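Reply to dn_fold:

You asked what the input looked like. This is it:
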Amino acid sequence: MPTLDDLPTLASFTPTGDDLLPIYDLTGTGSSKVRKVSLNQINGVSTSDVVGPAVLSNATAIATRITMNSSGTTALLPLASGVLRDIIIMNGNAGSAVAVTSGATNLYSSATSGCAVASTLSLPAATTGRFLSDGTNWYRTH
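and this is what came back:
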């Protein structure tokens, strides 16, 4: 029976930038269950997680964790069951709101009475909205 003594010793270090951190993966297969995770995956975003300033339109689905809007009026959320489950939309368009839409009626927001479900929510001009998914629904948290 394996013991904790069988695990490789992980050296301590002070991470900077997008260093890789060793982790122990219980679901791993093969000879080693030690994997690497990028520091940005744990603490923040990388350049590939951000797009913009961009023009948001009905035909463009959000595909990054942070999307900065410059002049568009519609943001289409991806499927709630997809891999992208934490999205921040920054509406830098001082002139108009952005309609955040979903392909289903699965958007919840505390800004609506009783946290009612909708298929479209309004993100006012010069504000930020964060949307989190549980795999079925989207929740606007701020």
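Residues 86 and 138 are 9 Å apart (CA to CA).
Hope that clears it up.
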